[in-house]
């Protein structure tokens, strides 16, 4: 009886007759062979001539062939291997970007809390320095490196005129230990920022060029992957992060629809006039959408061109 069908599953490649009887098989030893199934199918075609892929009723009848219990252990073992392999291969730069962006966000929250505590605590000892140094990172760095007298001298304040208390060494040490930990967190944050830049340079250079490293990471983090971001229309990308406002508008048309979501923080919008927010947000979302698709499909770098077009259109440098 002439061979008619070729069918491949996790166990191997099979040749079936028109009566759905298996006449030849090539069993796969591992998942690697299953992934290269085309090679084994070609071998069977060379031997048996033209073989069709089963469809509809033919496929149903061929699948019934594998209801035999002797195949069950093989299916269980191979599918477990395939699942484990798929999980391993699912780890990619998108996930690293999501994790790095999340880590930076959590470090920022921690820094805000600890820096507030440090300022309140250190102000008991040297309130003048806390008032003069507004930048949090600079503040924690300076008080860890310099004494109270050195800092007051820089501000032309006599130590005798300071209203801070004269603390014991153990109390000062406790404060400076917190400052040292905060400085370590700032260093860790900088490390993750550089790591994120390198990831985006490999994964989404165009999107990063249009939106900036931090915002590109936020959008990928919000959607879960560059693929999902690339599949979205520009109008959806524009309001990412404003879902609650959008749903309020959909429930009650009296509520205005949101003009933007996460991209609101972009410099192009921040530097625009209020009445231009909507127009700028649409243009920015359009370019970001193009950039995401080019990045996902591994196209050429056009980020500088897209950014230039935005700058020329709105006459705003960013």
Major sheet strand order: 1-2-3
Report the structural category.
Answer: mainly alpha
Q: Which segments are poorly predicted (pLDDT under 50) over 5 or more consecutive residues?
A: none
* CATH-defined fold name of the largest domain: Serum Albumin, Chain A, Domain 1
Number of strands: 3
Mean pLDDT: 94
Anisotropy-based shape: elongated
Count of DSSP-assigned helices: 17
Into which percent range does the helicity of residues fall? 55-70%
- Name the CATH homologous superfamily of the largest domain: Nop domain
Gap between N and C termini: 73 Å
How many separate domains make up the residues? 3
What about the largest sheet? 3 strands, antiparallel
Order of helical and strand elements = EEEHHHHHHHHHHHHHHHHH
State Rg.
31 Å
The CATH architecture assignment of the largest domain turns out to be Orthogonal Bundle
CATH class of the largest domain: Mainly Alpha
How much strand content do the residues show?
A: 5-15%
